[in-house]
Design brief:
It is built from four helices and two strands. Helices cover about 60% and strands about 10% of the residues. Strand 1 and strand 2 form a beta hairpin. Strands 1-2 form a two-stranded antiparallel sheet. It is globular, with a radius of gyration of 13 Å. By secondary structure, the protein is mostly helical. This is Helix-turn-helix transcriptional regulator. One of its GO terms (molecular function) is DNA binding.
Length: about 80
């Protein structure tokens, strides 16, 4: 898996993989883990693992924080 550590304001962030981006988009659409799994033809446990990695890479602990962080980052790109 490709990960690139970069520094922004002293905080390290990691680039999301293509699959993590797919899962992220579906999470932000309000899809449940099982729905995402069916859509991407994955097991629910695999989707949960992607979700955990996304949260870790972006430094968030819940979906509200995730949505807020993504919105903030899009404003600056």
């Amino acid at each position: 898996m490709r990960e690139k550590a970069t520094s922004r304001g002293g905080q390290k962030t990691r680039r999301l993989s293509n699959r993590e981006k797919q899962v992220l988009d579906l999470l932000l659409e309000g899809k449940w883990i099982k729905e995402i799994a069916a859509t991407l033809n994955l097991q629910a446990n695999t989707v949960s693992s992607f979700k955990t990695r996304i949260f870790t890479k972006l430094g968030v602990t819940n979906l509200f924080e995730l949505a807020k962080k993504v919105k903030e980052q899009k404003q600056y790109h």
